[in-house]
Design goal:
binds adenosine-5'-triphosphate; alpha/beta; binds magnesium ion; Rossmann fold; 34% helix; globular
């Protein structure tokens, strides 16, 4: 299967992608990584540390669906880190054409919520996801979930933004999102994860919870079952 890790702009996407890959590998899934962000930080992370759990392929191309996807081992969980959807909608469009699951990283703050729902420039991510249906074999957009990250312990903001996202905004007129109950906390050891060894407790526990939730929701294959 292919999991697309998406975000409108800088949100903690690469951090979440790398640590999700690490959690999937620890849960026993065969995993491969793809870096579709031209900053190539996920690929550099894999290159620079000894405990990154799998190969990361460079794949920052708007022909992702035609040139990268067919070459994947579809018996693995392939996870692709996409760049800013605002700036690279062509690459994101091509990923959405073939992804089985999209995980959208969003931080529970006003500016990040605005960039997801009502960007001043660029196409809203919800529209990219919706329009992908036209190019997909199923005729439906991929299953999409929002992962809230950089969540301050004890703050009300994760709950408030989760309600706004699931309810379509204050007036209910914006697109509605499925928001995962797993929250990635704001933590120094997660902030400094990209490019450094993965094996720290703080870099594991929230992502183990994420894998458990994805599994419970039926978004991951049974272990040992392909695709
Ligand atoms: N859970 C967290 N707690 C605190 N800080 C975090 C957390 N996750 C990410 N960050 C910080 O957020 C910033 C963005 O993280 P990251 O590089 O993963 O995001 P990105 O969406 O991939 O950005 P880019 O636009 O560069 O691709 C970094 O400064 C990182 O340290
Ligand atoms: Mg990144």
């Amino acid at each position: 299967m292919l999991i697309a890790s998406l975000k409108p702009r800088t949100m903690g996407g690469t951090t979440n992608t790398g640590l999700l890959i690490y959690a999937l590998a620890r849960a026993g899934y065969p995993v491969s990584g793809y870096d579709a962000d031209e900053s190539l930080q996920l690929a550099a992370w894999e290159r620079d540390v000894s405990d990154f759990p799998c190969k990361v392929h460079v794949a920052d191309t708007p022909s992702f669906a035609e040139t990268v996807y067919p070459e994947m081992d579809h018996d693995r969980i392939n996870v692709v880190d996409a760049g800013h959807a605002e700036n690279h909608p062509d690459i994101v469009d091509s990923i959405l054409e073939v992804a089985d699951l999209a995980i959208v990283t969003v931080s529970p703050t006003n500016p990040d919520y605005d960039r997801l729902t009502r960007p001043e420039r660029g196409t809203p991510l919800a529209k990219l996801i919706k329009r992908s249906a036209a190019l997909r074999d199923s005729g439906q957009p991929p299953t999409t979930v929002v992962l809230l990250n950089r969540c301050q312990a004890g703050a009300n903001s994760p709950k408030r933004f989760a309600e706004l996202l699931t309810g379509g905004g204050e007036d209910g007129k914006l697109p509605r999102w499925d928001v995962l109950s797993t929250r990635i906390p704001r933590r120094e050891l997660i902030a400094s994860a990209v490019g450094f060894p993965c094996d720290k407790p703080e870099r594991k526990a929230p992502y183990d919870a994420l894998v458990t939730e994805l599994r419970t929701l039926g978004h991951l294959p049974e272990l040992g079952v392909s695709r």
